[in-house]
User: Fold this.
Amino acid sequence: MNPIIDVLKSHRSIRQFTDQPIDQALFAEIIMSGQAAASSNFLQGVTIIRVTDRAKRAQLRQLSGNQPYVESAAEFLVMCADLNRAAQCCDLHDKQATTGFTEQFILATVDTALAAQNICVAAESAGLGICYIGAVRNHPDQVSELLNLPDHVYPVFGLCLGWPDQAPEVKPRLPLALMLHENAYPSDIDRAQIEAYDAVMVDYYKTRTDNKKTAGWSEQMSGLLSREARPHMLEFLRARGFMQK
Amino acid sequence: MNPIIDVLKSHRSIRQFTDQPIDQALFAEIIMSGQAAASSNFLQGVTIIRVTDRAKRAQLRQLSGNQPYVESAAEFLVMCADLNRAAQCCDLHDKQATTGFTEQFILATVDTALAAQNICVAAESAGLGICYIGAVRNHPDQVSELLNLPDHVYPVFGLCLGWPDQAPEVKPRLPLALMLHENAYPSDIDRAQIEAYDAVMVDYYKTRTDNKKTAGWSEQMSGLLSREARPHMLEFLRARGFMQK
Assistant:
């Protein structure tokens, strides 16, 4: 369709990188691309911690399920949802900050995700590879301590950026009929579509180069949504001043 | 730097559109670009409700702070975080779904935001304009009812897409020094940088074409974070099965 849409549609996570660093001018452009994303109420509720310290990288790797690319990627960014910076503006204008609303948590989380996705697209447009690291939420308290995150800031995910040293296949996505609906959500889920997609995914896993799996998508989802999911998150977020109400 | 980064850095919200529709082949490419974004655990936790029904559009406009472009944009998408589709897969594999974890809420919300940002970039790459509509969270219960959203699905934001009939200026973003930090979050916020940015924003508002304002960024933020923010959100989300724990 056009070269930008081609870049978007060819995304796959990269988990193996060369040793080559990222040129600093390019890095700055990538970060500024992130900043250029939309932001609700112009909150700009994202803070990026760029981790260059080798010891901290090694610790973050351990805290994030021991994923080696957290340490080996040219750059590792911890993308934080940040209400602290804007809350501090209340002091500057003699107002009392109130940061405990769930709505504000959503604002900052969405701002962070939009900025991150722009960073990924900018990086991929230059030939870099990226990988989101949700596992920074495995031990968000320790990650926060390591990076000196204050209250009203939390690590949403990490981002590995670097020059790819692998060329994995693009994963087939859900059929449009299962995720795009006109005017209303359907009353029943279309099981035939799910089964057809399961077959596509089983075939994909069979033929792809790395990390072969045998389960279709619905079986994977049934595993994902029937087990505990980071049960510490709510308590962690509340302790950090989020989601009081 | 490159044409993609140029597109990313030239984003501004468009709130006035021509009557021209979006070609359906282009629309499909835009949606598929959204699907191509990364997804944690491959949940693909986003559902898009494309609202073509004129009466529903008019209602959504009223429910979203009466913003006219909700009605007038060529396309209006309600971007929903969706755990329902994946939870239904538990039935297919004789498992018990558990969808009340805050972590799962974050997964689906982030998935939705990443897909949305790809949709915006794809649209803008083709010359279209976009506007995020957070105000679908003003009355999320009524929006959910209107669109037949089941439990474990919530409207995160709307998206207007259309051909721009205005050319607003790009808004200056926070100085990098305030949102990008190396290895640790700073102990103190840099007030001089905030004041410098306030001056930039005051100047921007003075010279821009529409919607002139006089307050700097920190003053706007002190207003935003010292008032109630959609205080119904937590109760709404809990009633819908999210954030039970």
About this structure: The domain at 3-169+228-239 of chain B is CATH 3.40.109.10 (NADH Oxidase). Chain B touches chain A through 121 residues (CB under 8 Å).
